[in-house]
Amino acid sequence: MLNTTSVAGIIAGRDPFEYSSSSPYTLFFFQAIVIIVFAELLYVPLRRLKQPKVIAEVIGGILLGPSAIGKIPGFTKTVFPDASIPGLTLMANVGVCLLLFIVGCEVDLHFIKKHMRVALSVGIFNMAVPFGLGCLISIGLWKDYRETVEPHIKFTTFLVFVAVAMCITAFPVLARILTQLKLVKDRVGVIVLAAGVTNDLLGWVLLALCVTLANSSKPETTGYIVLVALGWMLFVIFPVRWTLRWFLFNVVKDIDNHSGPSQLSTLVILCTALLSAFFTDIIGVHAIFGAFVVGTIVPRENDYVARLAARIEDLVYVMLIPLYFALAGLNVNLGLLSQGRDWGYIIGIISLAMVGKIGGGFIAAKFNGLYSRESVAVGVLMSCKGIVEIVVLKTGLSASIITPKLYSMFIVMALATTVFTTPLTLLVYPESYRQNVQKWLKNREFAERISIQDSDKGDKGSVREVGGSLEVSQVPDVTLQTFDEFSIPKIIFSITNTESVSNAMVFIERVCQVSNGGRGTSVHALYIKQLTERISDLILASNYTATANEVGKHKLNATLSILKIFCGFKNVDFSSEIRFVSSDEHSVFAGLSGEDFDVSALLLHFVHQKKFLDLLVDSDGLIDSLRALKSGTGSHIGVFVNNNQEDNNQDAGDEDATDDSSLFSTQTILNPESFQLTTITLVLNFSGAPRLSVTDLVALKLLLRLAASERIELASIMVNAANCPTEEIDALKWVTKGLTEVNLLLCTETGEFEAFIDSNSPSFSGISNLVLVSSNEAHDEMKFVEESIRRNSKLLVLYQ
């Protein structure tokens, strides 16, 4: 009688947990679900601690293995029977080959060339010190754990492998940590990225050498394998790369295809990666090396490599890679580490790995001119192991270079060093110290500049030494008497969505573009993009960092390209920048701080009405955020709110005032009438000050620029002049003299201005299309700002 139990369902009496070679996928599906869900649950608390996901995946494997849940009778035999492991391993190895292909895509050879001295000095020296320490500790590990264990290998093979395991740096995890800690553009981040790429390249070459030594019994065979592997690498880097670029640029013309690589292009690239993996595997080098090399040759123009990674990363990172790292954890048996000597070696391995990486990074970074704490931060960041270390150890275990006990010891080291990286970096290189470093560097640059100037042509700023560092005082002395000479040299626009572009265009046309030979205002567009956990975002971030400081180059996306073209039509100088913020940053001002901003520039941030009203609920928190932003940029801060009202006469509190059914309100770039400004009101409050502040003058300059537009019917300046000196009032009258379109309203009586800003005042309702407020962050003015948002079409608040 024919037995159909293996293909029948549970209704026919089949045990779904019984492994069947004719349908191995049945148990595989359940194993994959258990591994993936378990890792995701573990990642929830670890994510709050800013730990990489690989930690959760490996710990999940350890807990599912013989160290914890595997001790439950029948669990391993039922869920992970020995017969099912080859199939699970097959899928995991396919995933790790694709992972190494993506890791290769992250390697920017142009970035290495640009920072060659740093990449070589820090990268090589940071590997050399822990490599030497690894050679030392390998002597004891060999005698106590490997010398008498089958299969026998040469001590040199074991020595090289242990040294490589000690000196490796996980570039993918490192790049994400740098982005989370906002260090990508910091000089520490630039050095670490350059050195990390070099470390990554050398690490895989050394790992290939280890596997070669393990797979060959004769010295001449080892030499042949190394030569063939080197020849294949050169063949891929040159002829294959040239052919691939010719195919993508000239045959399929896929580089400029912003909708993503075509199926044909993806097929050709992935088949090339698999072919390279096949070749390196059959010559005695691991398959992951071949996939990695192909990843480095994918074109980076127009972010093509990021778009390719976006096509394949979800399958790799969501489905396949958790299987690989879970298998790595399943092979860990903490029960084998039962002696005090074992844990003594573990502590020694962790200590030497950390000391070697930190010490090597510190010395090399100091050689490149960094401060001491910056140099320590470089070493700490380079000590991150993560994904790459796990792959190295798993490869060593598969090649029988290390035993299961040694494997478990090194896995503990890999987890510990990766977990320590983020908190140690925050400890030795906190945000406050970073800001001080930026100030010291700017002050040093300024001091060097003025030191070569003649005294009669010198800058009006003064330089003095404070606490061992230079401090520069260069605050412009601007008053109403010198108002004609005052200008806004640059406006920095914060761009987060399409409506931000619409708002920016209004200011570019009516403020930045100046006719009749006047001095124009340049534009710097700052595009804020939230960094997700997708590796394609990480590649984009590294791409933008690689060319961020190149003269004459701007990183553009479709949104910034619109502004660039518009500025070109208006003859306005344009520059741009893309900044990535971590997904756990929820502040409305996230990504705006920057020590490289001009102290005289105006930073305009566009905020939706509802979001800003929510911020005003906690006025103390908003004031603290604004002060921190002011301190972090040094520029004038402006917040622009567009109520997106369909009818300017309609009260903003009316539920029908906005169109919630559409992604875009009725007043967007799609509606040419949405930004018609006919009336403007500027509100200035002296608040007992002897004269108008610089921020007040910036607001006044904006009003006069806007009032010069032919479309403006009336521009009003409401001034609390009750406590204002007479000379300031006279100067203000002189500035607005002859401007028929500007109406100056002076509240000279005590309480008159307060009555004006009272929300119950009839004159307050519907003041203007646009209200400009120069605020000193007082709570009564916050109340006025809130009412202005509710009752007017648009509001621009400049904070002092």
TrEMBL record:
The keyword S-adenosyl-L-methionine does not apply. Residues 34-422 form the Cation/H+ exchanger transmembrane domain. GO terms for cellular component: Golgi apparatus; membrane. It is a multi-pass membrane protein. The chain crosses the membrane at residues 25-43, 55-73, 85-107, 119-143, 155-178, 190-215, 221-244, 264-295, 315-336, 343-364, 376-394, 406-429. The keyword Hydrolase does not apply. It is found in: Membrane. Keywords: Ion transport, Membrane, Transmembrane, Transmembrane helix, Transport. GO terms for molecular function: potassium:proton antiporter activity. InterPro entries: Cation/H_exchanger_TM, CPA2_transporter, Na+/solute_symporter_sf. This is Cation/H+ exchanger transmembrane domain-containing protein. It comes from Kuraishia capsulata CBS 1993.
